[in-house]
Design goal:
The chain is an alpha+beta fold. The chain is built from two helices and two strands, in the order ααββ. A hairpin with a 2-residue loop joins β1 and β2.
C-alpha cells in the first residue's frame, strides 16, 4: 500500500482530471475505481496577490 499511496501523491493534474472523468485510473499496477480516491481542492493563500480572507470551493470543474 505504501507504493500506491506514494504514486497517488505524484499524480499530475491531467491524470487526476482523467480519473474524475472516467472514474478509474491505474496506479502502481493497481486499478483504482470511483470511490477509491477522494479528491480535495486547495486554495494556496500564501501565493503573491492572494487574499487570506478567501475560501476555496469547487464543483469538480471550477474552483472559486
Amino acid at each position: 500500500m505504501k507504493a500506491i499511496s506514494k504514486a497517488v501523491k505524484e499524480l499530475s493534474d491531467s491524470q487526476l482530471e482523467e480519473y474524475q472523468n472516467t472514474g478509474k485510473i491505474t496506479v502502481a499496477g493497481h486499478e483504482l475505481v470511483e470511490g477509491d480516491l477522494k479528491l480535495m481542492y486547495k486554495f494556496d493563500s500564501s501565493k503573491e496577490g492572494a487574499k487570506s480572507s478567501y475560501d476555496a470551493h469547487s464543483d469538480k470543474e471550477v474552483m472559486v
